[in-house]
Design a protein that fits this description.
This protein is of the alpha+beta class. Helix content is 36%, strand content 24%. The radius of gyration is 30 Å and the shape is elongated. The chain starts with a helix and ends with a strand.
Length: 234
Amino acid sequence: MTRLLAILRALRWRVVVAVAAVLVLLAAPLWGPPLLSHLSFFRVRHVEIVGRRYLQPDDVLRRLRIDTTTSVWTDLDALERRVALHPQIHTVSIERDLPSTLVVRVTENLPIAMVPAAGGLRPVDADGRFLPIDPSRSALDLPVLLKPDTVLLHLLADVRSANPSLFSDISDIRRTGGTDIALTLPSANVRALASITAQRLADIIPVEADLARRKARVAELDLRFRDQVIARTQ
């Protein structure tokens, strides 16, 4: 009987210890980070930026406003809000890579065209926002617009998504009056309606290939007529 009581007491203490351990683990998110943030072992020593294309790392570091005294257990939401204010940032998330690294994952508002501005041509995104990209530091081969026309910019964005090679051939795009627009390609000028879709614009590709095989000199390709591509030769 005495032995049985001893076993029951031992089991009871094991249950108490197990429950206490569970409670400690559940409470860790409340007291763990504040306690660990005081340890030098968890000071930020590296910042890794993932997903950038034109964004300069120094711009991200300035937005973070951290130094060697900052702990990886700092408030990541606050850091994300600072970085998100950068005009080139579309989305940002920050994660901890313990013990001493912050991983900043970004998607950018990508440049879609070049628009004249003070000091020369400047890149804009699909919504017409000027982006802080220095053309002298980044190779930008983009169509030129006279102004940030969002209809034409969204068309260019759709073309780049659907047919990157066609997008790379467009040197400029402009309105020519009313609902008409014009694009300049290496092989010919293209006339179309401002409401044209990327899929419809791609109808010129087989026409260009056929004219090239016949060695025809094309002055203009006209897409303003339904389901037709009219080639005007020289």
